[in-house]
Amino acid sequence: MKLSSTVAALAAVFAIGVAAPAWSQTKTIYIGMNGGPMEKAYTSQVLPDFEKANNVKVVVVPGTSSDVLAKLLANRNSPQIHVAFLDDGVMARAVNMGVCQKLDDSPVLKELYPFARMKDDIGAGVQLGMTGIGYNTKLFAEKGWAPPTSWMDFANPKYKGKVVFQSASSSTFGLHGFLAINRQLGGSDQNVEPGFSKWSSTVGPNVVEYIPNSAKLSEMVQTGEAGLFPLTPTAVGDLQDKGIPVAYANPKEGAVLLLVDLCVVKNNTDPQLAQKLAQFLLSAPAQSKAAAAGKQIPTNEHATMPPAMQKSLGNLNDLVKKVTVVDWDSINAHRAQWDQRWNQQIEQ
C-alpha cells in the first residue's frame, strides 16, 4: 500500500510537471474599451475566437475613453494595456500625445471605409457611429407629429419644452449636435460663433434640460420629458432593447461621423500579439459578430449586420456617403475655450 501510494504521489507530481509548461504558454493581454453593452458584446462573442486561435487570454479593462487615455498616460513607459478603443476625439488627443504606434500593414486595412483609416495608419476605426436624431415615438404618436428630418427641427417651436440636449462640454453627442446645428447656422468646425450667438434664439428656448451624458435619457423618455435629443443608432438600439419607446432619424443634412478607433499602445509588452489582435478586430468576421452581439456598426465594408439592424439603419453605404466628418484637430485646439463658453453662456 505504501509503495502504491508513493507511485501515485510521484505520478501526480509528474503530471503537474508536464502540465505546467503547457499552462504557462497561455499569455494574457489587455484591451481598454467602454464597459456595458460594448464590453459584453466583445467578451461574449468576439474575443473568444481570438483567444482560442492564439492560446491567449484577452482581458477587458473597462472605462470611458477619457478613463482609458488617463491610464495610458499614467503608464506610458510600461503600459498595462496592449490595445485601446477610444472615441475618435479622444483618439486624436492620444495620437498627439504619442501613446499609439503605427498599425502593421495588412490586407484588412484595405477593407475599411476610407474615413476609418487614420493618417499614417496610426490607428483605425473599429466601430462606426453616426450622431443623428433620437426621438420619443410614444410622444410623437400622441402628438401626431411626423418623425424629425432635420437638425433644425431642434429649433422648431412645436418642440418647446421637449428637447433634451447633452452638454457639449462633457458629451460627444452634445458636441456633435451643437456642431451640426452651428453648421446649419453658417458656422464650421473652425468658426462656432454662429452656434453660440444664435443658440438663445433657435434651439435654446426648446430645451427642457441639459444633461451631462445620455444616462438619464431612458428615464426622461418614459416620463415624457424627452421628445428630441442627439443620439446614435447604436445607443437608440440599446434603449429599444430595454423597451424604451425611441427611434433614430437620420438628418437630411447628414449625420455626424462618430468612430470608435483602436490603436496598438506604444511600448506594450507584446507588440506582435497586440498587432495581431488589432488586425483581428478590424476583420469582417470579428465585426460581423460584434454587430450581431451588440449592434456595433462595422467599419469593414465586407462585414455583415443582422437583418433587423440593417432594416433599422437602411443602406449603410448610402448613409456613409452623407456623413459629416469633423475636424478633431481644430476642435481639440479650441475645446477648452468652447467648454468654458458653453458652461457659462448656454447652461448658465
Q: Which spans have pLDDT < 50 for at least 5 consecutive residues?
A: 1-24
The major pleated sheet works out as: 8 strands, mixed
Q: Radius of gyration from the CA trace?
A: 23 Å
Number of domains: 2
Question: Into which percent range does the helicity of residues fall?
Answer: 40-55%
End-to-end distance: 85 Å
Q: What oligomeric assembly is this protein in?
A: single chain
Q: Which geometry do the CA atoms define?
A: globular
What is the level-2 CATH architecture name of the largest domain? 3-Layer(aba) Sandwich
Signal peptide: 1-24
Protein name: Extracellular solute-binding protein
Keywords: Signal
GO molecular function, one term: thiamine binding
Characteristic key phrases:
348 residues; alpha/beta; D-Maltodextrin-Binding Protein, domain 2; 2 domains; eight-stranded mixed sheet; two-stranded parallel ribbon; 10 strands; 45% helix; globular; disordered N terminus; thiamine pyrophosphate binding; Sperm_putr-bd; Extracellular solute-binding protein
Write the layout of secondary structure elements.
Layout (H helix, E strand, L loop, with lengths): L1 H23 L2 E7 L3 H18 L1 E7 L2 H10 L8 E5 H9 L3 E2 L22 E13 H7 L19 E4 L5 H13 L8 H6 L8 E5 L5 H6 L5 E4 L1 H9 L4 E4 L6 E10 L5 H12 L1 H11 L12 H7 L2 H7 L5 H19 L2
Parallel strand pairs: 1-2, 1-3, 6-7
Antiparallel strand pairs: 3-10, 4-10, 5-8, 5-9, 5-10
Structure at a glance:
By secondary structure, the protein is of the alpha/beta class.
Please explain how this structure is put together.
The chain is α/β, with parallel strands linked by helices. The chain folds into 2 domains: 8-128 and 259-304, Periplasmic binding protein-like II (D-Maltodextrin-Binding Protein, domain 2), CATH 3.40.190; 129-257 and 325-346, Periplasmic binding protein-like II (D-Maltodextrin-Binding Protein, domain 2, 3-Layer(aba) Sandwich). Helix content is 45%, strand content 18%. It has 14 helices and 10 strands. It has helices at 2-24, 37-54, 65-74, 88-96, 137-143, 172-184, 193-198, 217-222, 233-241, 271-282, 284-294, 307-313, 316-322, 328-346, and strands at residues 27-33, 56-62, 83-87, 100-101, 124-136, 163-166, 207-211, 228-231, 246-249, 256-265. Strands 1, 2, 3, 4, 5, 8, 9 and 10 form an 8-stranded mixed beta sheet that branches. A two-stranded parallel sheet has the order 6-7. Strand 1, helix 2 (37-54) and strand 2 (56-62) form a beta-alpha-beta unit. The radius of gyration is 23 Å and the shape is globular. This is Extracellular solute-binding protein. Keywords: Signal. It comes from Paraburkholderia franconis. It holds the Pfam family SBP_bac_8. One of its GO terms (molecular function) is polyamine binding.
